UniProtKB/TrEMBL annotation:
Catalysed reaction equations from the record: 2'-deoxyribonucleotide-(2'-deoxyribose 5'-phosphate)-2'-deoxyribonucleotide-DNA = a 3'-end 2'-deoxyribonucleotide-(2,3-dehydro-2,3-deoxyribose 5'-phosphate)-DNA + a 5'-end 5'-phospho-2'-deoxyribonucleoside-DNA + H(+)
Name used for this protein in its record: DNA-(apurinic or apyrimidinic site) lyase
Domain HhH-GPD residues, every copy: 124-287
GO biological process, one term: base-excision repair
EC number: 4.2.99.18
A Pfam family of this chain: OGG_N
Family: Belongs to the type-1 OGG1 family.
Length: 293
DNA sequence: TTCCAGGAACGAG
DNA sequence: CTCGTTCCTGGA
């Protein structure tokens, strides 16, 4: 919360930011448009901009940007107004499992991503692992997104606008290795692109109403809806349950073979308004431990 | 060659 | 409502 901002040419440096670790932020399953560079920094494309982020000691260095974009985009994107210390303290109360989970993923932050991009990304994510999801999104962007610039010798493309996908065929979309999800992508592009639904207004609804609205879209089920709510709409009480979260919840809090609904109700009740943060720490912890492998 | 991981749709009960 | 099956891709 209390950090110092230093402006330099093409970069913004933050000093003294707590609870911020790049590998935790990008490798906890919330975001797919990043690449880890050989120097350990991360280059990402978000909100039509290319950003490189590095961490050195207690400095976070935003490269290829400026102070206007820091205030206009990245401060919100990285959830820098949120007091993660307070959230952690609340989640750890009477919960040794969460304490250990947070020890592993102490630097996680929930990114505020674009709603449309998050919708399509998580439709693509269903029934697949992270490397494949990244590849499909990258190919969709290269084919149908605008070239926004080059960085470190590589061209980077914005995520395609709904209108850019609107008149494509299922076969074209399938070339981006989306499989049977191609139809869902086109349906979603029609719903959003033709303004049958204003996805940028959904965050004004309460979490349950917003979820109901998202579930109208074909290819969006409970898990994908909760990912969109949490990773693009600031609904921090959403609790997306994928296989990893299912396993870690059953292992530490419940027992094997629990129906999803039971885990959902338990998580919502136990973690309350911070369920989304709990989900992120648990997801990261489950993968670190390799539970169920 | 076969097997497996991973969410939602869909039909049956 | 819950349950079981099917849909794809790529890596082991």
């Amino acid at each position: 919360m209390n950090y110092k901002i230093v402006e330099e040419k093409d970069k913004v440096i933050l000093e003294g930011v707590a609870d911020f670790e790049l590998s935790h932020i990008f490798e906890c399953g919330q975001c797919f448009r990043w690449n880890r560079e050989v120097d350990g920094s991360y280059t990402l494309v978000a909100h039509k901009k290319i950003l490189n982020v590095a961490k050195e000691k207690d400095q976070i260095i935003f490269n290829n940007t400026n102070i206007e974009d820091f205030y206009g985009i990245w401060k919100t994107y990285f959830d820098l107004g949120q007091d993660y210390g307070a959230i952690k303290k609340s989640l750890c109360k009477n919960d040794p499992v969460m304490e250990r989970a947070i020890e592993k993923g102490y630097g996680i932050r929930i990114l505020k991503q674009d709603e449309w991009e998050t919708l399509i990304s998580f439709i693509i994510s269903s029934n697949r692992g992270i490397p494949l999801i990244k590849k499909s999104i990258e190919e969709l962007s290269e084919k149908y997104g605008r070239l926004i610039g080059t960085y470190k010798g590589r061209g980077h493309y914005a995520f395609p606008e709904p209108e850019a996908l609107l008149n494509r065929t299922i076969e074209e979309i399938r070339l981006c290795r989306t499989g049977y999800r191609a139809k869902y992508i086109l349906d979603a592009a029609a719903i959003v692109g033709e303004r049958q639904m204003n996805i940028y207004n959904i965050h004004n609804l309460d979490t349950d109403m917003a979820r109901k609205e998202l579930l109208r879209i074909s290819g969006v089920g409970p898990k994908v809806a909760d990912c969109i709510l949490l990773f693009s709409m600031g609904k921090f009480d959403a609790f997306p349950i994928d296989v990893w979260v299912k396993r870690v919840m059953e292992y530490f809090y419940l027992q094997e073979d629990m129906p999803l609904k039971v885990i959902q109700d338990y998580g919502q009740k136990r973690f309350g308004e911070y369920a989304g943060f709990a989900q992120q720490y648990l997801f990261y912890y489950a993968r670190e431990l390799g539970i169920g492998k």
